[in-house]
Description:
By secondary structure, this protein is α+β, with helices and mostly antiparallel strands. The chain has one domain (2-250): Deoxyribonuclease I, Chain A, CATH 3.60.10.10. The protein has helices spanning 11-25, 109-125, 153-156, 164-175, 181-185, 217-220, 230-234; strands at residues 2-7, 29-33, 50-54, 62-66, 70-75, 86-91, 94-100, 135-140, 179-180, 194-195, 207-208, 211-215, 223-228, 246-250. It has a six-stranded mixed sheet with strand order 3-4-2-1-14-13. The chain is globular, with a radius of gyration of 17 Å. The protein starts with a strand and ends with a strand. The mean pLDDT is 96. The chain binds one DNA strand through residues 9-10, 12-13, 34, 36-37, 57-59, 103-105, 142, 144, 159-161, 194, 196-203, 208, 210, 236, 239, 241-242.
Amino acid sequence: MRLCTFNVNSIRSRLEIVKNLVEEWGIDVLCMQEIKVESDKFPLMSEDFECVVHGQKRLNGVATCSKYPIEEFERGFDGELGEARFLYTLINKIHIINIYAPLGDNYGERFEYKIYFYDKLFEWLKRFDLTKNKVVICGDFNISFTSLDVWDEFIWDGEVTHLPEERAIMGKLLDMGFIDVIREFYPDKKVFTFYDYRGGAVYKKEGLRLDYVLVSKPLFEKVREVEILTSIRRKRKPTPSDHVPVVVEFDL
DNA sequence: ATGGCGCGGGGTCCGCGA
Length: 252
């Protein structure tokens, strides 16, 4: 089973890229973030996929599309927060949590909201036994965890995504039993999933790793391959997202 | 194009993203 997480930065603007992505890379389950459209206006991606959409007008929004039946779903705790950022699905007995975490700012009001979002996430995750259940959290976490996850650790020191509180959140997710699949496959290498549109960041390799695939141990044992599709980001036409798709293949 | 932002809403700019 090939799972892909991709912050599309508007599904309507990225429809052609998404269609090519699932075709070319044989994607079975696609978790999208920043779809930037209301749920009932989500475009038809493919006849082969069933989609659960949690969208809103103009900003945010997440959707999970699958070639396999979606057995259960829940538009999670974020409803009470007023922003569409959390979507749970059960596919092939795998618990799939698709998140678009708030960016926040350097210790302003939006930063409090980011901390609150993750507090709610931790609360929600308590239902799982990560030693037994197959659980994956994927999406745009808006956290750059270590110095390997930022193109310049001195420039990013004290900046949002790389603040101590945010790095502690990622540390806590790993401590509770989640495994960072991308980092396991690239233990010493700077690999990025986001490049700012401004300043030609992608051409200068000035990126951040903000997107993650975290899995419980029973699921980590099934991981066969990890691909970070930077080539899609480097193309000029059609205009890419500022984020890069990440594909994880499982032996399932 | 040897350089360099793009999105949606409802507009010919603004707020937002990270």
